[in-house]
TrEMBL record:
Name under which the protein is recorded: Molybdate ABC transporter substrate-binding protein
Keyword vocabulary terms for this entry: Metal-binding, Signal
Source taxon at top rank: Bacteria
Record's keyword annotation contains Membrane: no
UniProt-recorded Gene Ontology molecular function terms: metal ion binding; molybdate ion binding
Keyword Signal included in the entry's annotation: yes
UniProt record similarity statement: Belongs to the bacterial solute-binding protein ModA family.
A Pfam entry, by short name: SBP_bac_11
UniProt record, GO biological process: molybdate ion transport
Length: 258
């Protein structure tokens, strides 16, 4: 090999060696990152709690450095995801609903607040009390599917216990979940609808108003984070439990009507 070729070969080897040491240095730097930076926690929640859970997740990430991977849907979808994937660590929802689900099993429940049912109406309508629903102008009244959403169940209980169920036969429109009822209210596609206070606060600028339903007329709604069995010893779970009890988290929950 002549001198120019030898020089070129040496230079090429030098570049390869430099790249090798740079790559090795990069790997060392990654290995030196805090453990929390590489951690993540998958949370699932009913679609009606997307706003508070998203805000809680963002605040928790800032405080702990643990990344949150959220999943939202109606509770049937949420529980199916938790059963099928071993990544879901915490499911937010009504404690009674989670306890009755059978699978997945839950090791513990992290308190998050009390759910509140409201009756809302679109812009252009007005209601002073739920009994006024019997008026003919309230021809389409939406509520979430009681088989999939705790607020659908609570709405059905209220209608039965208040004596309104029979008076409103033929006017009730059952839809998938709370956000869908809210979308119909915002779009003026229904004359009234049952949703939770959390969602009502989120769309209050785009609807006519809402009134809270007497909680004595439906079962108590205890919103919790159910820790899926097998995940209770994850560091992120304990950190989340401590965060939910903090003043910062409590302020977020109260602001969202919990």
């Amino acid at each position: 090999m002549n001198l120019p070729a030898l020089l070129a070969h040496a230079l090429w080897r030098g570049v390869r060696i430099s790249r090798f040491w740079l790559a090795l240095a990069g790997l060392s730097a990654v290995g030196a990152l805090p453990v929390s930076a590489a951690e993540s926690l998958t949370l699932a929640a009913g679609a009606g709690y997307k706003r508070p859970v998203s805000e809680l997740a963002a605040a928790f990430e800032r405080r702990s450095g643990i990344r949150i991977e959220p999943f939202f849907g109606h509770m049937g979808q949420v529980l199916a995801q938790a059963r099928q994937s071993d990544r879901v660590a915490v499911v937010f929802g009504d404690q009674a609903f989670l306890e009755g689900a059978g699978q997945p099993a839950f090791a513990r429940y992290l308190p998050a607040g009390r759910g509140r049912l409201v009756l809302a109406w679109p812009t252009g309508r007005t209601l002073a009390k739920p009994e006024e629903l019997v008026a003919p102008q309230f021809a389409r009244i939406a509520l979430p599917d009681e088989r999939q959403a705790v607020y659908g169940k609570a709405a059905s209980q209220f209608l039965a216990r208040s004596g309104l169920a029979k008076k409103l036969e033929g006017r009730l429109l059952m839809v998938a979940n709370v956000p869908q009822v809210s979308a119909y209210l915002v779009g003026g596609e229904v004359d009234a609808g049952f949703i939770n206070l959390t969602d009502a606060l989120g769309v209050r600028e785009r609807i006519g108003g809402f009134v809270e339903i007497d909680p004595a007329l439906h079962d108590e709604i205890r919103i919790v984070g159910g820790v899926v069995s097998g995940h209770e010893n994850l560091p992120g779970v304990q950190a989340l439990a401590e965060f939910l009890a903090s003043p910062e988290a409590q302020a977020i929950l109260i602001r969202h009507g919990l």
